[in-house]
Amino acid sequence: MNSIITGDALELIPTLEDGSVALVVTSPPYPGQYGNHMEPLEWLQWMDHWLSLLAGKLTPSGVVVLNVMFRRTADGWFDSALFGAGWTTAGLRLLDVYIYGKANPPPNGALTYCDPPGWEFIFVLTKAKRPQDVTFNPVRRPYGRGSIRASNGQRYSNRSKQETAPHPDGARQTTLMLMSSSADQNRPRAQGISFPRALPDRFIRQYTNPGDLVLDPFCGVGTTCYVARQLGRRYLGFEINPVEADRARAWLRELGTDTLPLFTYLENRP
């Protein structure tokens, strides 16, 4: 473990030990991306295939965090086919849905009839039989300016007239994740657009414990693996592009005293 392996995920996933992976955080290549010329239906079948291979490698309460987005068809329409991704056929259940809001989305290029996409879906899937069987360590944020009473440690009453004390570690996060990749300027850039380090940071903290194994079967320059190593988890990455895999290994070798910030939230919350 603790390595980046060059190769096809479809060939490498079967080599994993059954029941060994606690968490998968990944963003699979979309149709038309990185030389992927699959049609939407073919892409969905490919998704079903690798998710089915992966299911047996998860721990009984293992989690898959799947970052995907809508893409436009050649004639300009949104392709909503990703909602047909049949993770249920792989024996996985949909535990949660997050929205990854981009503070600095890429420009829209030649598309003059629509705004640039500023968000992506994050589907959280699990092998667990019950939601409460999943490891869940809430990641909290500091109280906002509107929560002076909470930040001062004062008690207050909620709508049910119950007295409530603020949590000393801050407020619970929501499923809306607004973040910027501006803090990631010191990392190598992937062939495409990589998600910021804050994205895997939250899910690794939330769904694993130190020493658990985190996998990214389409790891690119190794963002998920980098964060997992920083957080004291074991990591494994698969990358079919040897150039990207080499860059990921080089980046991980440089990991020393670099500190990883928690989420850079941009919305003002009370």
Describe the structure.
- With 270 residues, this protein is of the alpha/beta class.
- The protein has a single domain, classed as Rossmann fold, CATH 3.40.50.150.
- It has six helices and 14 strands.
- It has helices spanning 9-12, 40-55, 148-151, 198-207, 223-230, 242-253, and strands at 3-6, 21-26, 58-68, 71-72, 78-79, 93-102, 119-126, 140-141, 156-157, 163-164, 171-172, 176-179, 213-216, 234-239.
- The strands form four sheets. The chain has an eight-stranded mixed β-sheet with strand order 1-14-13-2-3-7-6-12, with helices on one face. A two-stranded antiparallel ribbon has the order 4-5.
- Strand 9 and strand 10 form a beta hairpin.
- The protein is globular, with a radius of gyration of 19 Å.
- The chain starts with a strand and ends in a 17-residue tail after the last helix.
- Mean pLDDT is 78; it is low at 257-270.
Short description:
By secondary structure, the protein is of the alpha/beta class.
Keywords for this entry:
Rossmann fold, 24% strand, 270 residues, alpha/beta, 14 strands, disordered C terminus, two-stranded antiparallel sheet, eight-stranded mixed beta sheet
- The portion of residues forming beta strands comes to 15-25%
Largest beta-sheet details: 8 strands, mixed
Number of strands: 14
Relative helix content:
10-25%
- For this structure, the CATH topology is Rossmann fold
Mean pLDDT: 78
Strand order of the largest sheet: 1-14-13-2-3-7-6-12
